Model the fold of this input.
Amino acid sequence: MAVGWCADGMSPGETLPSVNQLVAKGDVAFSVQLSPSVAIFTLRPCSRNFDSANACDVILRRQDGWSSDELSRAASELEKRQSEVVVRGYPEMMRAKFKDDIPAVCIHAVEIVIGNQRFRTTKQEQMKPRPCAHAIVPKRKKRGTNNGNRFAKFMQFLVDTFGGYEGLSRGILDVAGGAGGLAFEISVRHGIPCTVIDSRAVKFTKKQANAIAFRERCCKLISPGLSISMLARNMHNRFQCTSFDQVQELLDAADVLASKEKSEKMKTFDAIVGLHPDQATDHIIKVGLRLSIPWAVVPCCVFPNKIVRHLKTGERVRTYEDLCAWILEQDENVKEATLDGVEGRNRVFYMLSEKKN
Ligand SMILES: C[S@@+](CC[C@H](N)C(=O)[O-])C[C@H]1O[C@@H](n2cnc3c(N)ncnc32)[C@H](O)[C@@H]1O
Done:
């Protein structure tokens, strides 16, 4: 059987478990092992006329049941032997989820025959097809309140609500960014320009620094396959990081609004956001409202003794519930949503620009 198959009728993100027996045969045009858990390769038809449109991308993942040893053995054999490779697996049309994603189609291999050697996943029968879209989102261990995923969830909310990647292409101002959890999501995982404003210096964790190094290494390894493989192009786009800026000071709305230069600078951002921004909450809302810049906050602490706020009833804001009510009172166009899957303080308040509202 030749490589390639018809993906018509498949929607983005879809896998076809019923086609677990899909078979492709061809020569290896490009192959690379990216980590102990992932390798990709591209098959071309066993003929001289290679057209990348006929290429068939294949992915081997631990999530599909490959042991690290078997995956590495198959990957190194693919580098040695380049002809007459047979793959059995199931197809996926990858979902365009991250910035610049190309909706690539690939086969998730469950068995590969290279010459007289056979490599296969363990537990083939029990294996459930799973799409790639989630392959690079780390699983977090639950410890206390499970809000470690708040950065990823808030970021996804911003992309979904503020006009997608196009709507955020000029950049996001992350107010009270703290150690940089949200900045990492914005710039590294989603490739959107980001500026953090906080007196505290951003310091990526070892895990985040490793993730950046891994992405840079992958981009280098994948480069030779860019002209051949749609999957390689997709992964290259997905792994590219955007650097971010940092302004090490506190945001002060009165100061910004008094300065034409600072106000104009603020207007260069597509959104001003704050995740658990403590005392910066009021500053974000005030700057956003006065300069008509889209904004979003996920409030956390109230500081009832330090910050004096009054509800329309005249009552002082003392609790988290009061603070949420107070934010909603700031403008009739303020909207509210919930960051599903985030435990604890997960209410998000936001306002789009007049056009987007
Ligand atoms: C609870 S931490 C949250 C950090 C981060 N957003 C997170 O979710 O992990 C609050 C941060 O707000 C910062 N902060 C407080 N007032 C601020 C202001 N006016 N402008 C900028 N940052 C401020 C503090 O320095 C601190 O890093």
About this structure: The radius of gyration is 24 Å. The pocket of S-adenosylmethionine is lined by residues 175-178, 181-182, 197-200, 250-251, 275-280, 283, 300 (CB under 6 Å). The mean pLDDT is 86. The domain at 17-127 is CATH 2.40.50.140 (OB fold (Dihydrolipoamide Acetyltransferase, E2P)).
